[in-house]
Amino acid sequence: MRRPYRRAKRFFRSLPEWVRLSLTGVLAIFFFFFGGVIAWAALMPIPAIDNFESRQVAESTKIYDRTGNVVLYDVYGAVRRTSVSLEEISPYIQQATIAVEDDTFYEHGGFRPLAFLRAVLVQLHLLSGYAGQGGSTITQQVVKNALLTQKKTITRKLQEIILALRLERGYSKEEILETYLNENPYGGTIYGVQEASQVFFGVDARDVDLAQAAYLAALPQAPTYYSPYGNHRDALDSRKNLVLSRMYSLGYITEEEYARAREEAVEFRQEPVAGIKAPHFVFFIREYLESKYGVDAVTRGGLRVVTTLDYDLQRKAEATVAKWAPQMERNFNASNEGVVAIEPSSGQVLAMVGSRGYFDETIDGQVNVTTSFQEPGSAFKPFVYATALERGYTPETVLFDIPTQFSTACLPQDIGNSTPPCYSPTSFDGTFKGPVTFRQALAQSLNIPAVKTLYLVGVDAALDMARRVGITTLTDRSNYGLSLVLGGGAVTPLELTAGYGVFANDGVRNPTTAILRIEDKDGTVLEEYQNQATRVMETQIARQINSILSDNAARTPEFGANSPLYFPGQGVAAKTGTTNDFWDVWILGYTPGIAVGSWAGNNDNEPLEKRIAAFIIAPMWHEFMEYAIAKYPSQDFIPPAPEAADLPLVLRGEWNTDPSRGAHSILYWISKGSPRTGPPVSPFSDPQTAYWDYPISLWALGQGLPIEDVQGASGTSSPAFIITSPIVNSYVQANLPIPIAASHPDTAQVASIIYYLNGAPIGTASAAPFTLTYVPNSRGQSILQAVATMRDGSTQTTQTSFIIQ
């Protein structure tokens, strides 16, 4: 037991004399000052502890809607506590609590100076990386909860320390621990281990097992955050394992008990919360309050919290979800829904429905889906297009919606292969529109143009745009590739809806808030809403996105003229989203006055019926949106300014900008990083150019365009006899098989086609479609010729060039 002291003594003696003298002086000053403070505190008037059982009664914290009149929740109003003696509390609970809260409880006299100093250093950010116990002993926590106010002042802390020292002299450790375990908050209105054991596990405190006891000990640090019914079950499990680890290291349990308790699957009973309105929102607020002001201030401090919630709008949202949920489950296998509404001009949360039923055990109803991670599907696309518009592209920029291979680890001809490492996405309905503008592609939610847009701007720039509009969940760049634009990253409905609110607010972001005002029990304002608007996007960019997403004519080919996205006489911007695995469907819509996001799916990730969001969730969203825009009316969107007239043609809606040079993708006509400056010097230096051009050649051939409009190839004796694979100036891999193919307008008259690579014959094809496979073993620029022998004995020749690498 004396080894740490001996080591410290040896270390002190090893220091230079001047260092020892300095340390001695500093310590002398510290203890002199600290002793004076203790003496001063001892003379201060403090609450009496002679009658400990008659301690103060906690004051209720109330949470209101935005009017300050509707009480959503009275935190202490229906408190549930059943006091029991220490003998009626399982030793596991006692040991687990001591292990995680105060492992020297039976050794100290009520106060631990070194632990207190360490906690102060952590608060001052002078000590980091410490994740152990706090600075307060169990005795101090009993004093704080039972005898003192919740104000965090130096005077109150000194009172707490002195009272803890006095309490230790007047009461036994067992009495103090018993009081602590009967007073602790365990979430909601549950206080004390007996009530918590009954509510969570259906057993008395004397009968809980080791794993259950570890969960109980884990909860009081942040009972709302760690709630077994909320969004942070993983965090609760981790803290439970920390409790078990500390119990094992302190010798309370054996290694076998430790391992068994870690693996035990503990079931928590579902218990309704009585007298609560907008429950998901309330616990969202309570978690915020506890994280900022502490559990004690919330459970005992008598706070008056006026939130941003519009309770009338909330009731409409809840009623709409309740109305549509049964048929959505019956018709589309969607068992759960969520809705959130935000005011773009302030960032204030107006409504939050976290599930179709808070008390519905079959869907994990207490999990708040509006703050849970979900993949957004195509609902992420507007942020990518906004990034492109910011880069200099326009709503009339032309891209090709045709099958395209994006992975350079595969061949350009693999336009239907998405088996890794290949990547060739398709649209939901399997159709392809050919050349389309940004406006058409985004309004109709076409996948291939969206992937091309993300490539044009880069993943990093798109992630930066998401961060600027307030999406915080896309943090690890290494996790994301081109599939990001199709919803390949997890977001929360709350943040995604707020991001759309930036478009609605002309590019100005207001941080999401749910608090208007917080007062303590004396009426002192602790916190009050203040506008913190920040411009994160140019006005023109936001208005262009608004124009596209509210353009009913542009989305009509995909959704129909009278879809649930359309509101006659009212400009409403809207975007749907469906994940590739059909786990999630979304719709987000907004006016300048309100932004509303809706999600549907299954909490267990069971897939929905394979229907797009417009069929599954849009009707429910439309009904609520009608009510919301009537209650929060606004002017129509301000149209964007006209674009300049001297832009490259491909930015002005012209896909075939120079017929003499053939049909090409946008990468051939502009520099992707600076689209308004003209074409690149070497278009095919970008590896994607050949991959995007190949299917365009096939598409153009199918349109009956002559060869000079397709590839611009020379040396041909027939204007429609072309080599279709490899495409002109494409890249292929040496020592790997590549397809060789040609197309002739009069196939029936072709007897055979002989292929020559750099003048040497490589094979003959004697029947349509005149294809063969060849493995090139040289590298560099190569010329491929095709000589067609016609049935009348004549010959025709065409050629192309490509690069073998």
In short, what is this structure?
The chain is α+β, with helices and mostly antiparallel strands. A hairpin with a 5-residue loop joins β14 and β15 (584-590). It is elongated and about 115 Å long.
CA gyration radius, whole angstroms: 35 Å
Derived structural class: alpha+beta
What shape does the CA trace take? Answer: elongated
Helix content: 25-40%
- Residues in β-strands, percent: 5-15%
According to CATH, the fold-level topology of the largest domain is Penicillin binding protein transpeptidase fold
Q: According to CATH, what is the class of the largest domain?
A: Mainly Alpha
Strand order in the largest sheet: 2-1-5-11-12
> Helix tally?
25
Provide the CATH architecture of the largest domain.
Orthogonal Bundle
Mean pLDDT: 84
What name goes with the CATH superfamily of the largest domain?
Biosynthetic peptidoglycan transglycosylase-like
Count of structural domains: 5
Distance between the termini: 72 Å
How many β strands by DSSP?
24
Major sheet: 5 strands, mixed
Low-confidence stretches: 1-5, 119-133, 706-719
State the main characteristics.
24 strands; Penicillin binding protein transpeptidase fold; alpha+beta; Beta-lactamase; disordered N terminus; 36% helix; 805 residues
